[in-house]
Amino acid sequence: MDRVTDFVVVGGGIGGLATALQIARRRLGRVTVLERAEEFGEVGAGLQLAPNASRVLDELGVLEDVRKTAFMPGRLLLRDAISGEEITALRTDQTFVDRFGYPYMVAHRVDLHRALLDACIAESAVELRPGTTVLGAEQNSSGATVRAEGATFSADAVIGADGITSTIRQQLMGDGAPVGTGYVAYRGTVSRAEVRRSGDDVSDMVIWIGPSMHLVQYPVRGGELLNQVAVFRSDKHGTGADDWGTSEELDDRFSIAAGPVRRGVARVNRNQRWEMFDREPRSGWSKGRIALLGDAAHPMFQYLAQGACQALEDSQVLADCLEGSVDVADALQAYEAQRFGRASTVQTRARLFGEVLHAGGTLASMRNYLLRRRDDTDFEPVEWLYASADA
């Protein structure tokens, strides 16, 4: 079966749905979203939405829907995982909102995805196709074709938003699989009432940092649930062991941590281990009528909490370029030209921030000493990331 549309988006995650919604809301054409899973949905627990993401959600008209179940922490807090002491904080109260125009929100990934999905369902120009496994894409001077199991889709352009193991990236760039780092994450949510009963209530966004490990905690669902992400580097990675990054290793690594951290880790969901991968920034996201977006284009560590945020930025710039050009290939080239520098900077700084967070010994002592000297309303370190381009 050959189906004809204006745009095909491969991948129905946050970046893919935001892109489809951008195209539909700006009346740029019909868009078909292909998703491998049998249902459109999001895997994971919480995510952080900085002002640079909220601006895009506001433009798309879904910000208020997301805010209904989001949580606005008063501070982003950094604590020493071993001693339990506060290292530094960033105030995210009204002073922060006045500076950047939007609050700092933490939300459940499912809630953000649902808001985007509902908005796409309401758009007649968006066709959602779950249960569609994409095999590859080809193009010529007049269009592009996506090959899927049981169907082909012809379009003016194809956007690969299919994640870090992107099929479209390999078709376009052929640079192989991403590189494993030896770090793994365990994540999930727990009842905040349960946490309160233990005396460990969390009302801010907290990162507990230690040597080769950290624990992130923050409320979601309006404060009803506590999202937790425990990350550590496995000593067994690269040794040939099949069982590296295990739940037992998780407990062993955090056994030296302060009481609240150990109790938090004990509550972390152990059903799935998330291996962390890396890629070096590389140009070539856009070739002719095919382009990449989000993790397919620029996968990044979560240490700056910008994965979803940067995918949302991608969707906005891509739509701007399509709206401002009569030639699709030129628009996609302009999109990469505008986004490559910023996304690459976020990639590399997230990696560097992870090294700072995971330092031990003398380096950790120096880090803590320097960070304790800063004021919690010093927004300069995040100015480059959160401020509007017009600010």
Description:
- There is one protein chain.
- By secondary structure, the chain is of the alpha/beta class.
- It has a domain at 2-72 and 109-177 and 279-359: FAD/NAD(P)-binding domain, CATH 3.50.50.60.
- The protein has helices at 14-25, 51-60, 63-67, 94-100, 109-121, 167-172, 192-197, 247-253, 259-267, 307-323, 328-357, 361-371, 380-386, and strands at residues 2-4, 7-10, 31-34, 46-49, 75-80, 86-91, 105-108, 126-129, 134-140, 143-148, 151-155, 157-160, 179-191, 205-210, 213-220, 225-233, 274-278, 286-287, 290-292.
- It has a seven-stranded mixed β-sheet, sandwiched between helices. A six-stranded mixed β-sheet has the order 8-3-2-12-19-18.
- Strand 15 and strand 16 form a beta hairpin.
- It is globular.
- The mean pLDDT is 94.
In short:
The chain is an alpha/beta fold and 391 residues long. It has 13 helices and 19 strands.
Number of helices: 13
What percent of residues are in strands? Answer: 25-35%
CATH class of one domain reads: Alpha Beta
Number of strands: 19
What is the 3D shape? globular
CATH topology heading of one domain = FAD/NAD(P)-binding domain
Instruction: Quote the average pLDDT.
Output: 94
CATH architecture of one domain: 3-Layer(bba) Sandwich
* Largest sheet report: 7 strands, mixed
Uncertain regions: pLDDT < 50 for 5+ in a row?
A: none
